[in-house]
Design brief:
Elements (H helix, E strand, L loop, with lengths): L2 H23 L5 H13 L6 E6 L8 H6 L2 E8 L2 H10 L6 E6 L2 H6 L6 E7 L7 H13 L1 E12 L7 H15 L5 H14 L5 H11 L4 E7 L2 E6 L1
Parallel strand pairs: 1-2, 1-4, 2-3, 4-5
Antiparallel strand pairs: 5-7, 6-7
């Protein structure tokens, strides 16, 4: 990653930190319900130890309580933000397991020559930032990095079937404006601008087709809250 990319990532994380924390605390994107379901998924692997790759991990605060409860032997967190990874290291310092962090773009990390495979690959609210071509490459690379019995756990937003991106953005931002009431006007403006500039979610069917082409034979929606879904692939 270039120095310019690191600088942009650093500033992006600093700019969005307060807003994002308020969004999580307000449960506007259903983090509480979704991560409870993620916990139940990981519990199915107990008591055998397993490895977990967290793509776009941020500060890892949402996964932290799950890592405390589950038998994760090796955790690898990947994110572009140095600031985020420093906070993640602080959050996970009390865990009795092998922890690694990598400053990198998650697609670049997956596609580099690296023999390591993982029992669980997780990504939370990151895939929708990729272009259609990048999403295809991402799913292909994820499949290659899983162990034979491994699974990909995806948390993300998805457009409704037949819903064009401009209509989705209007609907999502409209819901933000009326329901995300703990944000100040400046924070709301920032959040809406972020969504309109960076979010390019696909429909569930589109991602399912890409997953099948990547070699996944199981694709299951476990939770759905408005446009927010928890998907399990294997």
């Amino acid at each position: 990653m270039t120095a310019e990319a690191q600088t942009l990532s650093h500033q992006f994380f600093v700019d969005t930190w307060t807003v994002y924390k308020k969004i999580v605390q307000g449960n506007f994107m259903f983090h509480q319900e979704i991560y409870q379901s993620v916990d139940r998924l990981l519990k199915e692997r107990d008591p055998a130890p397993f490895s977990l790759l967290d793509l776009g991990c941020g500060d890892a605060e949402n996964l932290h309580p799950l890592l405390l409860r589950r038998n994760v032997a090796h955790y690898v967190g990947v994110d572009l933000s140095v600031v985020a990874l420093k906070l993640a290291a602080e959050h996970l310092q009390n865990l009795q397991l092998k922890v690694e962090f990598q400053v990198d773009d998650m697609l670049h990390f997956l596609e580099q020559e690296d023999p390591r495979t993982f029992d669980v690959i997780f990504s939370g609210f990151a895939l929708h930032h990729l272009s259609p071509t990048e999403k295809r490459r991402f799913l292909i690379a994820v499949k290659k990095r899983l162990t034979p019995e491994g699974e990909f756990i995806l948390v993300d937003v998805f457009r409704d079937e037949g819903q064009h991106l401009p209509n989705y953005l209007d609907a999502y931002c409209g819901k933000m404006a009326t329901e995300w009431r703990t944000l100040t006007k400046e924070e709301m403006d920032y959040a809406i601008t972020h969504v309109r500039e960076f979010d390019t979610p696909d429909t569930l069917k589109t991602i399912e087709i890409l997953a099948s082409e990547a070699g996944f034979t199981r694709f299951k929606t476990l939770d759905q809250y408005t446009w927010h879904r928890l998907i399990q692939m294997a």
